[in-house]
Amino acid sequence: MFDGPLSASAYEVLGVDPAVDDDELRRAYRLRLRQTHPDTGGDAALFIRVQRAWENIGSPEARTAYDRGRTDAAWGPPTASAPRGGTRPRTKSYGQAGAWRRRRYLQLLSEHLAHTVTAREAYDPAIVRTAPWGVRRMLADALAEEATSQAIDDLGIGFTAWHDVICGPDGGQKLDHVVLTPTGLYGLVSEDFGDAVRFRQGEVIGAAVHGRTPVADLLSRARWVARAARVRFGGAVLILPDEDVAEPATVLGSVRGVQVAVVRRSALRTVLRSGVPGTRPLGVTEAFDVRTRLSQTVRVLVP
Predict the structure, then answer these.
(1) Are residues 146 and 203 in the same domain?
(2) For the stretch 74-102, what's the b/e string if a residue is b when 16 or more beta carbons lie within 10 angstroms of its beta carbon?
(3) Are 36 and 46 in contact (CB under 8 A)?
(4) How far apart are CA 144 and CA 150, in angstroms?
(5) What CA–CA distances, in Å, run from 113 to 72, 77, 109, 122, 158?
(6) Which of 42, 214, 261, 279 could be 234's S-S partner, Cβ–Cβ 3.0 to 4.6 Å?
(7) Which ranges in the chain belong to alpha helices (H)?
């Protein structure tokens, strides 16, 4: 598995040079395990990152594949997928997740390099890694939104999703995803801070968060959509890469009747199918009414 545009490499997580030999790599791994183990006062999320780093480079075969992936990481736009086998319907979706941020990323990278970038340049890891943090973050968030969209697409019949929903009084903000499920209506934001995060007083904190308030921002945008469409959100979900949080799902509490949770990307489908604890399920008639209101009101960003 290759690293994201913002995340530290497996070598950086273990604190070694990429040219280190296997014996020194193993010693570094054992040291980092002791330093980060929760039982000895370490950070649980960082402990998970250390384990994942070892999975990526702990064997000669894995290390070879990882090193190759670092030079040709698959960060380019998603290609159209081949039709799936079977007859199971996919989630009904509107909008194109990640498209707006990809376009903005290309603009920012072109400004940074002072020329219009080619597709090859734009997704060359060597070029991406040297771009300013704000540029790399735009690509990281686009990738995060696309990964969330892929997970939502597989939920199947009974689910409806809107991606890149325009919100705010001047249309200058967006809510990454709005998902209507049998377990409730959810507003979702996909993030990738590139590092482990923690929670305090219902908010996400950590060095990589850079003083932002992602939970408060998510709730603000969900409230705007709720008022515009005259609907009620049951839950607000912040989706993060698996290695950045210690638990598959963490419920931060209820804010004005909206249950707030932070969820690992791999656990998202399970959470949306079973519902965030405390979220009120929708009846068939109510769900139909909510879908109608959203369909008539929601506007999505055009790539």
Answers:
(1) yes
(2) ebeebeeeeeeeeeeeebbbbbbbbbbbb
(3) yes
(4) 10
(5) 20, 20, 6, 10, 46
(6) 279
(7) 10-14, 22-36, 44-57, 60-71, 99-113, 119-122, 125-130, 133-153, 214-229, 268-274, 284-297
Which residue, among 233, 279, 235, 239, has the nearest Cα to 262 in the 3D structure? Answer: 239
**Residue of 76, 80, 162 whose CA lies nearest to 127:** 76
pLDDT at 13 over 50: yes
The three-state secondary structure class of 118 is coil
Q: Is residue 76 part of a domain?
A: no
Q: What is the DSSP letter of 66?
A: H
DSSP one-letter code for 262:
E
The residue assigned the tokens 């090193």 is 67
| CA separation for the pair 73, 75 (Å, rounded) | 6
The amino acid sitting at 102 is: R
Given a contact cutoff of 8 angstroms between Cβ atoms, the answer to whether 91 and 159 are in contact is: yes
Per-residue pLDDT of 113-126, as tens digits, reads 999 999 889 998 88
- DSSP-derived pairing of the beta strands 258-264 and 249-255: antiparallel
In this structure, the answer to whether residues 190 and 64 fall within a common structural domain is: no
Radius of gyration of the chain (CA): 20
Predicted TM-score of the model (pTM): 0.85
Q: Select from 189, 207, 190 the least CA-distant residue to 198.
A: 207
Residue 115 in any domain: the answer is yes
Amino acid at 114: A
Instruction: Domain count for the chain, please give it.
Output: 2
Name residue 165's beta-bridge partners.
175, 300
